[in-house]
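Practice problem: predict the structure.
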Amino acid sequence: MNFTLRVWRQEGADAKGRFETYDAPNVSEDMSFLELLDVINERLIADGKVPIEFDHDCREGICGMCSLMINGRAHGHEKATTTCQLHMRKFSDGDTITVEPFRAKAFPVVRDLVVDRSSFDRIIEAGGYISVNTGAAGDANLTPVPKDAAETAFDAAACIGCGACVAACPNSAAQLFTSAKLAHLNLVPQGQPQRWERTESMVETMEQYFGSCTNHGECTEACPKEISLDFIAFMNRDYVKAKIKNRKLAGQH
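Answer:
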């Protein structure tokens, strides 16, 4: 298979970016998209040129690092697929493929196809954890967890934090990411002591960096783990409750 790649190149955060064109001949249909970039980079290095920078880690669809816009779509055109799991057989021989970094104000470009997604870290730091002192670990069946709650929490915990939801959203909103990170804690007994504090803190931190959700639904379509829009509804419900409960708690002190 033969391809032509138009790749976004940008020397730094403050530099002016541009597209550069690379030929990719004799590509195996079993090659992943990141492996294709590896081959191009090997050729660039051999020619004494600067290779294309892009994020990657596990290459197994788990870590969420491979954040690329491919032909205008986050992670490419295959549904429920990360960039590292997107194979070249999903394209047509002779295609011209445009590769860009995620485009969002909260994800500034660092270099080439690498963006700074530390705004996600700020949301997690605001409450995406359980810090209650629990002592020694209890028996596995000591704390009953309803089956539906456990399964829904597992669905939310599938979020890999890649940022495709933000890149796909016309408002660059992060509600899908934030709601998934809230739900997998708020649905289980262990997350209840800090539920309302966590919800208010994470949502309001999110709003400092990202746009507002207007229910376009592009986020869940782009999500490689198909996180449901229902979690946004759960988050909005909990946020309203949190504002009321936290205000009452503040009035008691």
